[in-house]
Amino acid sequence: QVQVEESGGGLVQAGGSLRLSCTASGRTFSSHSMGWFRQAPGKERESVAAITYTGLLRNYADSVKGRFTISRDNAKNTVYLQMSSLKPEDTAVYYCAALSFATIQQISDPRRPDYWGQGTQVTVSS
What digits encode the pLDDT tens for the residues 30-87? Predict the structure, then answer.
């Protein structure tokens, strides 16, 4: 059983930056691939960024490439999402998710993760 909890959301002006954190419980964090997803009102949940349990592979949605960076610190059981050059269309609830020994494709699929956080709201004003 893995529990994940997001933090770091908030209100920011367009062009600004935020860093989201996701901390996982347990001693198996290093065996879990991690993903960040988001869901805006009236839209389906979508993958934003993902990182494999090895940390060697990362994946980004086209809409955030060059602006968002995902990283992980296994010593702190934490995965980060650094978001820069934020746009109003980035406004959404951001979720962290985990899947054991997942490939980058699997952890990027919102149907696959076994564990989800409660989400953190990110609002970008124009």
Answer: 999 999 999 999 999 999 999 999 999 999 999 999 999 999 999 999 999 999 999 9
pLDDT digits 0-9 by tens, 22-33: 999 988 999 999
CA 83 vs. chain centroid, Å, equals 10
Q: Tell which residue, 68, 29, 75, has the closest CA to residue 52.
A: 29
Residues 6+ apart with CB under 8 A from 28: 2, 100
- Which residue is it, tokens 């998710």? 97
SS3 content of the chain, % helix, strand, coil (to 5): 10, 50, 40
| Amino acid type, 101 | F
Indicate the pairing of strand 18-24 with strand 4-7. Answer: antiparallel
> Which conformational region is residue 113 in: left (phi greater than 0), alpha (psi within -120 to 50 degrees), or beta?
beta
Integer angstrom CA distances of residue 105 from 7, 59, 110 = 25, 8, 10
